[in-house]
Write a structure and sequence with these properties.
The complex is a heterodimer of chains A (327) and B (298). Chain A is α/β, with parallel strands linked by helices. Chain A contains 13 helices and 9 strands. Helix content of chain A is 37%, strand content 13%. In chain A, helix 3 links the parallel strand 4 and strand 5. The radius of gyration of chain A is 20 Å and the shape is globular. Chain B is an alpha/beta fold. Classes of the chains: A alpha/beta (327), B alpha/beta (298). At the A-B interface, helix 2, helix 9 and helix 10 of A face strand 10, strand 11 and strand 13 of B.
Chain lengths: 327, 298
């Protein structure tokens, strides 16, 4: 039996469905009201529990593996740090309910586009609040030597993932392959499943192949496999590098006491100039920006071809890609 | 002096940052868990003997007609959060009681610059090119945690129908409409096909999967507008295979600043002579939503 902690996000929902398809019992634990979860995801076995709650969680069964996908987000950086520390400490206190804890992290814990470290990080990453939360969690594991295995997923590709959206939009345009000739660093649900069900005892794994295919190869494969692809031409070059100032508040609040946070938030919301700094234009083409955000500088080995497994995954996502059809 | 009734998340997220608390009274029947930063009224009788310029009604939809019926002698206008009323019949009944009072519908998307932009472009075209089809898709994993989850037809659908009528300038026009097909459980997904004034319209909304957030308007000359329906969403023009960005979506807005515009609009009494936002005109939205609900229940 597998328990997915915080499994109502994109990775969690895909993973739950995959594990179930392999005839393994899977339960999701999360903060969302159980009535709502039942209505929206009737096939999920669900436990309502807030991982930030101290004390023992209401978990009746013993699970072989607990997979921790949960993280705490907030409007302010200091709160993200505090709550994720509490969450990891609570997971440690509840560890006896599970034979093994696999903690899911991200290869971006050292910053988007960095080459993944082979050790746990012991510093906070402020690229955004997701990387901040995940770097805090890794730091806690490092600091207190929690007995959790850590797997870092890279660019997650499955149903409704941000990279699926990027590919769905890009597969509708003619692209200049050189613009996308960098490593795609894909992690699939199957990769995660294979690790969980393996007997690996490695404390830390970066879950993607270091020499892998490029985004342009992936886009071309999608074009071949997906009905959504047609010959719409679009100049996407001006969207390649964007300055996203939306998250400035996160850097500001790193140095500001918690007691001032709510007042600061209200002040910023009342100030036109500050507000405009915190806003970013939303566009259909925003869907492709995640690809550029994770761009590594390493040059791609052209001989690396897309595996049959990834090709099959792309084929299976044909209907999902249709949800992002421009016309 | 104005009054706000219903001090839930909507109030704190969107209204509170924009108002001067000295010019408002704040009422909620349960004030025990509210922050100390404001002074509240929890006794309804205490607001019954006061005069207000505008009363903002932010309570659940089923409570609004009673609140308006009770408080209409005390104010000249009500601003009511979407979906405004639970039915067209309820609106007509309430309006007949409060004839002298303005009832303003809280459809905030009417203040989105990208919606105003596409509306103006369609108006400027002046019917030279006929709209043949409109396709609306919106969807993401539901992240709210309300006490009661409303049906899509009682919640997000009114946003989508109202935005559509607003863009087409059908807000206060007499319209023909026919509901063709409805699929979905109305909790997680809803798909609707209808015809409004000879335009084929399909609406696809999901709370448990991601869809592209887009309103696509097709013309008979084989061109289309693609509007990203989020706040500050881009507007693109598709001519055969050429997609171009229309860089005129207007000034960037935040969800908070949209409410600032709404409050300024109400404070300055602009709704009385309003030819743009037409906040008093929401009965067509209620009429279409009503008929969709009837078809769902059939």
């Amino acid at each position: 039996m597998i328990l997915l902690l915080g499994g109502l996000g994109n990775v969690g929902l895909n993973l739950a469905s995959y594990i179930k398809s392999m005839n393994i019992d899977v339960t999701v634990l999360g903060r969302q009201d159980p009535k709502i979860v039942k209505q929206l995801f009737p096939n999920i076995t669900y436990i309502n529990e807030n991982m930030s709650n101290e004390g023992l969680w209401k978990i009746n069964d013993d699970y072989d593996v607990a997979i921790n996908l949960a993280y705490s987000n907030s409007n302010f950086g200091n709160r993200v740090i505090k709550e994720n520390k509490i969450m990891m400490n609570n997971l440690y206190k509840n560890r006896k309910s599970f034979q093994r804890v696999v903690h899911i992290s991200t290869t971006a814990v050292n910053g988007y586009g960095s080459n993944p470290n082979k050790d746990l990080v012991n510093n906070y990453c402020w690229d955004d609040f997701y990387t901040l939360a995940k770097s805090v969690q890794e730091s806690e594991i490092y600091k207190y030597d929690y007995p959790f295995q850590v797997i870092r997923i890279a660019n997650y590709l499955d149903k409704d993932s941000i990279f699926l959206k990027s590919l769905a939009i890009l597969s509708q345009f003619e692209i200049d392959e050189e613009d996308f000739n960098f490593y795609s660093d894909i992690t699939t649900t199957e990769d995660i499943y294979n690790f969980i069900t393996s007997s690996s005892i490695e404390p830390l794994v970066n879950l993607y192949h270091p020499l892998n295919h490029s985004w342009s190869d992936l886009i071309n494969t999608c074009k071949l496999k997906w009905d959504i692809s047609n010959n719409i031409n679009y100049d996407y070059s001006k969207f390649v590098y964007t300055n996203n100032n939306k998250y400035l508040i996160r850097y500001l609040t790193k140095f500001i006491p918690m007691s001032l946070h709510s007042r600061l938030e209200q002040k910023i919301k009342k100030n036109k100039y500050l507000l405009s700094l915190l806003q970013e234009q939303v566009s259909h083409m925003d869907y492709i920006s995640p690809i550029y955000r994770v761009k590594r500088k390493d040059s791609v080995h052209k001989e690396i071809k897309i595996s049959k497994t990834v090709e099959q995954l792309i084929s299976s996502l044909n209907n999902n890609a249709e949800n992002f059809r421009l016309k | 002096m104005n009054l706000v009734i219903g001090l839930g998340k909507v109030f704190w997220e969107y209204y509170y940052p924009n108002i001067n608390p000295n010019n408002y009274h704040f009422y909620d029947k349960n004030i025990s868990e509210l922050p100390d930063s404001l002074t509240y009224i929890s006794n309804f009788n205490k607001i019954l003997d006061r005069e207000y310029k505008c009363i903002f009604v932010l309570t659940p939809p089923s409570t609004r007609d009673k609140i308006i019926s009770a408080l209409h002698p005390n104010t000249s206008s009500f601003y009511i959060e979407k979906p405004v009323f639970t039915s067209l019949e309820e609106f007509k009944r309430t309006k007949s009681i409060v004839k002298e009072v303005y009832l303003l519908g809280g459809h905030s998307r009417r203040f989105f610059n990208n919606y105003i932009n596409i509306k103006n472009r369609i108006l400027a075209d002046n019917g030279n090119n006929r709209i043949t089809n409109i396709s609306i898709t919106e969807g993401s994993i539901y992240k709210w945690n309300p006490k009661i989850m409303e049906l899509i037809s009682n919640d997000e659908l009114s946003h989508m129908i109202d935005s559509l009528l607003y863009i087409l300038n059908f807000t206060d026009k007499q319209i023909d409409y026919e509901i063709k097909e409805i699929i979905g459980d109305n909790i997680s997904n809803l798909y609707i096909e209808c015809v409004v004034d000879n335009i084929n319209i399909d609406i696809n909304f999901s709370r448990n999967s991601d869809l592209i957030n887009q309103i696509r308007i097709d013309f008979d000359n084989d061109t289309s507008y693609l509007l990203n329906s989020k706040l500050n969403g881009s507007l693109q023009f598709l001519n055969k295979n050429n997609l171009s960005d229309l860089h005129t979506a207007g000034k960037k807005q935040s969800s908070v600043s949209v409410f600032k515009q709404i409050i300024t609009h109400i404070d300055s009494d602009s709704y009385i002579k309003d030819n743009n936002y037409k906040l008093t005109k929401f009965s067509n939205t209620l009429m279409i939503v009503d008929n969709i609900k009837k078809d769902i229940n059939r």
